[in-house]
């Protein structure tokens, strides 16, 4: 896997946690899953145990085992494996962060605790700082997803001076539709080499215009190839073609949203039907 100094960029698939019909983790398909992402979708970075992977619904021991399996199966195949280690308990989050370092992950990410919510930027920073300190050699990413956490502290505000408090801070997974906030994150931190990873797949082209350096999302599990084509068109400044790709991706997402049954995707993945 990549050295921790390598910047996380491009597409990052937020991995689904495959399950058996009995609700047990189906570890047996993860090796195939890695090959599918690399060979079929052209995606070589992953984000494990996040929202798509239902990390907060898994036990701590399950999260550890899932992380271990992805790191093991991804060795010499994936560029970067980032493990989401956020939890309501600081001690559990620290335990997961330390474990991620021990197994050779390439980075860790943390959401804001969302039951007893941090009420100021400083309170949130202190929580993140304590988690990051448990894995002092790993790049640290803040996972901003206010629609699910209910924590409305703006990412722009949080990033102001964050490396002074968290030296390992490397970037942001921004899963929100507030492009004003996202744009200001980029604009106010141009001197930094932060990774600005956008997390709303259907709006990625807008975020690229704003300065996104990459993207983390669930659709890159199966629309990675199409999204990579959009990224390539954008790099070539063929904005008309890039927009066509974005509209194509939106049509697919719109279809899935209308189905109102994302579990179908998980069942298919768990049974190996998409592999």
TrEMBL record:
Recorded family membership: Belongs to the DapA family. NanA subfamily.
SUPFAM superfamilies for this protein: Aldolase
Entry binding sites for pyruvate: 52, 216
Keywords tagged on the record: Carbohydrate metabolism, Cytoplasm, Lyase, Schiff base
Lineage: Eukaryota, Metazoa, Chordata, Craniata, Vertebrata
Assembly mode: Homotetramer.
Xref: InterPro entries: Aldolase_TIM, DapA-like
Protein's recorded name: N-acetylneuraminate lyase
GO MF annotations, alphabetized: N-acetylneuraminate lyase activity
Pfam families on file: DHDPS
Catalytic activity: aceneuramate = aldehydo-N-acetyl-D-mannosamine + pyruvate
Pathway the protein contributes to: Amino-sugar metabolism; N-acetylneuraminate degradation
TM segment ranges: none
Active site per database record: 143 (proton donor/acceptor), 173 (schiff-base intermediate with substrate)
């Amino acid at each position: 896997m990549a050295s921790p100094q390598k910047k996380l960029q491009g597409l990052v698939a937020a991995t689904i946690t495959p399950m058996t019909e009995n609700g047990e983790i189906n570890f047996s398909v993860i090796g195939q899953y890695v090959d599918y992402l690399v060979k079929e979708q052209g995606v070589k970075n992953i984000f494990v145990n996040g929202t798509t992977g239902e990390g907060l619904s898994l036990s701590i021991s399950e999260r550890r085992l899932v992380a271990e399996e992805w790191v093991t199966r991804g060795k010499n195949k994936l560029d970067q494996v980032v493990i989401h280690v956020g939890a309501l308990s600081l001690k559990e989050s620290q335990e997961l962060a330390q474990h991620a370092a021990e197994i050779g992950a390439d980075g860790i990410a943390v959401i804001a605790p969302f039951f007893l919510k941090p009420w100021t930027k400083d309170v949130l920073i202190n929580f993140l700082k304590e988690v990051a300190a448990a894995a002092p050699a790993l790049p640290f990413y803040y996972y901003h997803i206010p629609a699910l956490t209910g924590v409305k502290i703006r990412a722009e505000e949080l990033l102001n001076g964050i490396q002074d408090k968290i030296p390992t801070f490397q970037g942001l997974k921004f899963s929100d539709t507030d492009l004003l906030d996202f744009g200001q994150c980029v604009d106010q931190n141009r001197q930094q080499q932060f990774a600005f990873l956008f997390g709303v797949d259907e709006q990625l082209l807008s975020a690229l215009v704003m300065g996104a350096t990459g993207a983390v999302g669930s659709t890159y599990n199966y629309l990675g190839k199409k999204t990579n084509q959009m990224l390539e068109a954008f790099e070539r400044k063929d904005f008309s073609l890039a927009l066509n790709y974005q509209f194509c991706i939106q049509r697919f997402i719109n279809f899935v949203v209308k189905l109102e049954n994302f579990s179908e995707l998980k069942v298919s993945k768990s049974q190996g039907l998409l592999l």
